[in-house]
Amino acid sequence: MKRNKLFIGLVVALSFVCFVVTAQNKPTLNSKEQSMIRIAAVTAKGDLSKLKTELNGGLDAGLTINQIKESLIHVYAYAGFPRSIRGLQTFMTVLDERKAKGINDVMGTGASIIKDERSKYDRGKAILDSLLGTPQNGPRTGYSAFAPEIEIFLKEHLFADIFERDVLNYAERELVTISVLSSIGGVEPMLQSHLKICLNVGVTPTQLQQFVNIIRSTIGKKEAKAARKVLSKVDKEVASREYQVGWTFQRSNIGH
Question: Does the residue 208 lie in any domain?
Answer without folding.
Answer: yes
